[in-house]
């Protein structure tokens, strides 16, 4: 693990709002950043995606774990690195669950495409052209948004669509609406 091994939070973290620079070559520096992303995501067991700006790097690299998601009975797969990813086709926009390691404990309903075709480079530098469907498309779209400084809270249509999850007195998990914008910066 490196010094970048912490997921950034919104307070004073301007890098989360910057447009990331493309990776010029998949060299040892790029591969090291990919490994930092994989290690950081693996250290946060509740995350299924992470983008370079979330660990303080202004490069167009993300890692995503596919095959899981809300209501899924299978665990997500291992982190898949995407370098210089670009969406070339998107459709089937639907409301779905959203959350982010940069906003711990905060969730929301956003509308995202459930079909995306992405081109870019894999961790070896080889070009790829891949289609992602369903919640996998949501995860990929969310992470690619980070590369352009877009956060999931930007895609929430109404404040009422943001919530936290807590255990009630009967031990059930319940949604608690965020009552104000000041709640977004709190962990409690």
Layout of secondary structure:
Blueprint: H1 28-43, E1 49-51, E2 61-64, E3 80-99, E4 107-121, E5 127-133, H2 134-146, E6 162-167, E7 173-177
Antiparallel strand pairs: 1-2, 2-3, 3-4, 4-5, 4-6, 6-7
pLDDT below 50 for ≥5 consecutive residues: which ranges? Answer: 1-5
Number of strands: 7
Mean pLDDT: 88
The SSE order reads: HEEEEEHEE
Q: Identify the CATH homologous superfamily.
A: Peptide deformylase
Principal-axis shape equals: globular
According to CATH, the fold-level topology is Peptide Deformylase
CA distance, first residue to last residue: 28 Å
CATH top level is Alpha Beta
Strand content: 25-35%
- By secondary-structure content and strand pairing, the structural class works out as alpha+beta
What's the tally of helices?
2
The CATH architecture comes to: Alpha-Beta Complex
Described by strand count, sense and barrel closure, the largest sheet is:
7 strands, antiparallel
Task: Give a verbal description of the structure.
This protein has 188 residues and is α+β, with helices and mostly antiparallel strands. The protein has a single domain (14-157), classed as Peptide Deformylase. Helices cover 15% and strands 32% of the residues. It is built from two helices and seven strands. It has helices at 28-43, 134-146, and strands at residues 49-51, 61-64, 80-99, 107-121, 127-133, 162-167, 173-177. Strands 1, 2, 3, 4, 5, 6 and 7 form a seven-stranded antiparallel β-sheet that branches. A hairpin with a 5-residue loop joins strand 4 and strand 5. It is globular. The two termini are 28 Å apart. The model is unreliable at 1-5 (pLDDT under 50).
